[in-house]
Structures are given as structure tokens and as C-alpha cells.
Amino acid sequence: MEERVRELQQTVSASRLTLYLTCRLRFFFRYVVKLKKPKSPALHVGSAVHATLKAWNKARWRGEILTLTQIHQEFTAAWAETEGDPVEWDGEEVAEQATAWRLLDTSQPFPPKPEAVEVPVEADLKEHGLPTVIGVLDLVQEGRIVDYKTSGQTPNPERVAHTTEVQTSIYSLLYRANTGRQEQGIELHHLVKPKNPKVVVTELPPMSEHQESRVFTLMESFVEGLARRDFVPSPGLQCSTCEYFHQCRAWQ
User: What distance in Å separates the CA atoms of residue 218 and residue 18, rounded to the nearest whole number?
Assistant: First the structure.
């Protein structure tokens, strides 16, 4: 365990930081002891949709156009891929697969050629006394960072801006460190999956100095918490959907 914690102290990502801030014990189960749990249907839908959009945008980046048949083939392959983790379907796989495909059918490609698609990047923050930030940018287009999300309901722009601030700020840090310039803005593309799927785009401005300061402070809390081996639970409404609920109940 100690070796794994030391590894985690070297780098930080948006997903790790967000989870640590949400519940330190959940972070411990997922990233320190790597306790495997079945993948939720919602997570699998999101993964399959994301993988298909990745193939779609990479083809556009190469100047190619995928046919509907090719897109469906990419989707079918992505749906079959579980990365070794079973999915708890509870008899809903067929319906969930149909919903995922409707989401993709709703999405439309952007006219301009992408600048980057699924680019793994990092930013060295040692001058700030912080670990290296790592991440993958879904799509960069005309200086704007685009991130895809699936959702069960129409997002509220103000709440989305707040709840995704850690992620969007880290994406801005990564973009600036690797391009030497400020992003034009950030777009969150929510693929909403009610009976009639739709795409809702939330446009956010470039990261402000205030937001940069906030995310640096949050990263400091992360670093200090790991140093203290601070892995305590944070009981709350989020526990109802936590995959480690029973392990948390047994925590001492």
C-alpha cells in the first residue's frame, strides 16, 4: 500500500482529485487498494459512446468521413469491450444499448477539422510545489476544449460549471502547458438520454486566475491528505450510488 501511495503522490488527474475531494475512503478503495467492482450500466453506456465519438473525431482529424455502417461497427466493438470488468445489467442491456445508439445518432460532427483528439498530456507543476498533472483531452477545436458527458437529465449550466470546475480547470492547465497559449473556452457536450435524446452544450469561458488559485489549493489538500494517509469516509447522499457501500459500512 505504501508504494502505491507514493506513486499517487507523483501525479494527479481530474478524476483522482475529484474523487478524493468527494470521498477519501472511496478514493482509497479505487486507487490505493484497487478494489474491483462490477461496472454500472450508466458507466458502460458512457464508455461506449465516448469510444465511438473518439473514433469519429479521429477520422475527421485525418480528413476522413465514417459511414453510418462504420460508426455502428465502432459502437458495436466498443459495447462488447468491458475491459475485464463485468456489467450489472439486471436484464436491461438491450434497452441500454438502444439508448446509447440513439445518443450517438443525435450527435452531429463539428464542421471544422479538429486540432487534437484524445491527446494524453501532462503539466509539470513542481514550481508550485505540486505533482505533475496528467489527463486526456477529448477534443480540441478552434482553441476550445470539448469534453463529452452522458447524462440522465438536462444539465443546469450554473451547477455544471461548479461541479465540473476541477476537471475544466485541470484541462485548462494542461492545454496552456502544452500549447503555450490560453484556451478560447471550454464546451461541455452533454448527451442527455431521456426518451428523446438530445445534446446540450454548456459553454464556459477560459479559466480565470481565481479558478486557477482554487484548483491549486485543492491539489495542495490532495497532496497533504496523501502524506497523512487521510482516507476517511464522507457519508452523504452520494453513498446511495457508491460501489463500495458495504466496504464503507465495515470500515473501522
Answer: 9
The candidate with the shortest Cα–Cα distance to 197, out of 147, 139, 148, 153, is: 153
DSSP 220-235: HHHHHHHHHT------
CA distance 40 to 81: 14
Enter the DSSP assignment of 155. P
Lowest mean pLDDT among 53-57, 141-145, 242-246: 53-57
| Cβ atoms within 10 Å of 160's Cβ, excluding its own | 18
Joined together, the cell numbers standing for residue 85 give: 470488468
C-alpha cell at 105: 445518432
Q: Helix (H, G, I), strand (E, B), or coil: what is residue 32?
A: helix
Residue range 64-68: mean pLDDT, rounded: 84
The answer to whether the CB of 35 falls within 8 A of the CB of 29 is: yes
Distance CA 46, CA 48 (A): 6
Question: CB 42: neighbour CB atoms within 10 A?
Answer: 14
Residue 26's CB is within 10 A of a number of other CB atoms, namely: 23
Q: Is the predicted pLDDT of residue 83 greater than 70, yes or no?
A: no
pLDDT in tens, 224-251: 999 999 999 999 998 998 999 999 999 9
Q: Which residue has the higher pLDDT, 177 or 43?
A: 177
Q: CA-CA distance, 24 to 30, in Å (whole number)? A: 10
DSSP run (H or E) holding 135: strand 132-141
